Amino acid sequence: MTQPAPADLLAGLRRLLPEARVRGDADTLASHGKDWTRFYTPAPAAVVFPVSIDEVQALVRHAIAERLALVPSGGRTGLSAGAVAAQGEVVVSFERMNRILDFDAVDRSVTVEPGVITENLQGYARERGLFYPVDFAARGSSQIGGNIATNAGGIKVIRYGLTRDWVSGLKVVTGRGDLLDLNRGLIKNATGYDLRHLFIGSEGTLGFIVEATLRLTTPPREPAVMVLALPALDAVMAVFAAFRERLQLTAFEFFDDRALGHVLARGVPAPFATRAPYYVLVEFDHAHAEDMDAALAAFEHAGAQGWIVDGVISASETQAKTLWRLREDITESLAPRQPYKNDIAVRVSRAPAFLAEIDALFAREYPSFEVVWFGHIGDGNLHISVLKPVDWDAATFVAECARVNVLLFETLRRHGGSVSAEHGVGLVKKPWLGYTRDAVEIDYLRALKAVFDPHGILNPGKIFDPA
Amino acid sequence: MTQPAPADLLAGLRRLLPEARVRGDADTLASHGKDWTRFYTPAPAAVVFPVSIDEVQALVRHAIAERLALVPSGGRTGLSAGAVAAQGEVVVSFERMNRILDFDAVDRSVTVEPGVITENLQGYARERGLFYPVDFAARGSSQIGGNIATNAGGIKVIRYGLTRDWVSGLKVVTGRGDLLDLNRGLIKNATGYDLRHLFIGSEGTLGFIVEATLRLTTPPREPAVMVLALPALDAVMAVFAAFRERLQLTAFEFFDDRALGHVLARGVPAPFATRAPYYVLVEFDHAHAEDMDAALAAFEHAGAQGWIVDGVISASETQAKTLWRLREDITESLAPRQPYKNDIAVRVSRAPAFLAEIDALFAREYPSFEVVWFGHIGDGNLHISVLKPVDWDAATFVAECARVNVLLFETLRRHGGSVSAEHGVGLVKKPWLGYTRDAVEIDYLRALKAVFDPHGILNPGKIFDPA
């Protein structure tokens, strides 16, 4: 439940920002105190909407003086509660800082405020004959500041890398209230520690991103999409190898038949009549006729080996988009079932053995639950969604998932994997951080936090607890 | 002058490592106390050659206890004196840690000790049908550990990025003696601050790199090379744009006629009879016939505009290699003249205005000096070599270069540039760091140093001085 904001807290904030941009009403507290995770009750004390770097700096300095906890807030599409305010914090929403500030065709770069929506940046680049390649299902709501704070990945990582790879400049306000102007759009700059990379993926715990310069690139030429039906889990990596060696892949995505069932139930057309336990979606550059020949050769080879039992290829951009819905609509189609999500990664080479182990583990531990598998398998990244049985209450369900997590993450640790591939740690993965980062590393993380945020005012309690 | 090593220091080190791998002889001190910079007199107290991570940890712990300064040493090809030991330090050479430990064809990754020579890694990848794309003239001597410690760039950055972009795992021993195993080869891993990126480019001041996992990629298909003659500096960026919009460039390199003269004097064949003030070398993927058509279209367009006055294109791999020598042999051809090097970068869009300003500046300030220009202009990165007049002594020459540096770096600062694009800071650029990183940033760099190396034993005095 949201609390009424203390009048003196609001009054203090209103000395910094106009009254209309300091909100304490229940609706705003409820909407801006949460993200796409559904297991926390939002309870911020206030929500502020700065419109300039100066205002962000003033807010941070005020927070230092008053020992207020600040939670940065973007598109609130996060899945690890990194932007949840459930402890009376002040939410700093960047949604009013949403201007595109500069574009340079020679540098192929764009400078933006943090509240620019991912899809708007993609469209802005496209209008200029260029391409911003970080892409994922939440593109219509997520904001660039949040993408950077979580080092967002998504569906094109196999070809274009992560958000980290596209940030050539970053302005941040640290927990000391300092404004840092990092790297300024340079391609090469070997002048000491690259602080830019420290802030990328730091989930707002070291500084708030107030401006970013992003590189753009040449758009891919006419990508084509295939969806293939696989009879067995262990065929996935063989199919991956067959396509990767012949084509420039831009995506290699995986989903199981349960996921397909939920998407088809929303009215997305079936790719083919065949149903199989698993499917992959392959996207590749179709710049030359020989690319299509190579794709068909891979398809025939995989079929001859028995790795695939059916398949379809897009003949138009519209068909390609329709096939993508099979993969991209999964998250939304599962949402009504309040899935408990795990977003894990292993090295690609470890994936077959790891998948076989957890498949057996889930069959044993979740006999009565519906478990849906999908993910960016070409990056070794798997999303596992456990659907809440309709008659279970949320707390009991989460506790049961946490019990199985111990078994899952012990397996993951043996395979050298990550408990959060791309969703970040936030609150949701905090209890499990030690399965990926050892105690010595976490001590260094805490020491870095103390350097940039010595008063502990920036997104406190996210990623790790204070020592 | 090198000093005789104190007997007790050597005795202490020999309790950790066998006697043959703890050297105090004058030859070893002289050879291992310096890099390719020539303005410092090597004066280490000892040189040690560990062969394992355990030995490196033991050395660091010993250094903490005895307050010894340690200087990491790789191929010693650095140009900023990052690996110079001129203050009685103990040099830790990684040349005996030169094994390739693991290769995985599915992950397309290789795990190496830090002393593996760059060219050996490139060859190892090639033998397996893969490609390690970081490449530069010192490839035959430089080592992977040094490449990572300086975030080496080189000639393929325009297409493949920097060393940073290829490191998927890193083991480091910090200045506290802790062994950190960072990222372990994962593609996606969103579990808190990415310490890996903090160590990349930190020049051995935060930790010593003891193992690395590097990604490999698909080799480029039959790259073709053009060398073009340009009548004027301001044509460079126009030619760049003409080629970039039509082709997938893998290199776009620049050099002036003085540089060409030095290379031709070594017996490298001239590309064509024409001499012009400036030249560019363009390398591009020649995977399809239409790529060559596009290259010729760019060539014709540039010629029609008067941006180029002559040109040649490779018809074979051998010819491509010969053309590359025009660019790659520059450094070696200048070496006898003890050049004072500046390795600077600006945003590509800023390059024309910046180049015009420094061209005028140098004409005014260096009227009697020979100034040679070359660089990775497609990255905004220019190497400027001022050749020492034969009759000047080194100290007077360096002092004169430092005087002009103030003017150069003031210009650079106005254009938002970097005083070290890819050579690092070391000792050479330390006095100029403030032209690229502001005082507040440098304070944070110092604070990070204190976290990872609180005793100040790792490469002390490099990048910045203690507060």
TrEMBL record, chains A, B:
Keywords associated with the record = FAD, Flavoprotein, Oxidoreductase
Cofactor(s) named in the record: FAD
Query: From its record, what is one biological process in GO terms?
Result: respiratory electron transport chain
Residue limits of the FAD-binding PCMH-type domain?
Answer: 40-219
**Molecular function in Gene Ontology:** FAD binding; oxidoreductase activity
Report the family membership.
Belongs to the FAD-binding oxidoreductase/transferase type 4 family.
Matching PANTHER family, A to Z?
D-2-HYDROXYGLUTARATE DEHYDROGENASE, MITOCHONDRIAL
Protein name as annotated: FAD/FMN-containing dehydrogenase
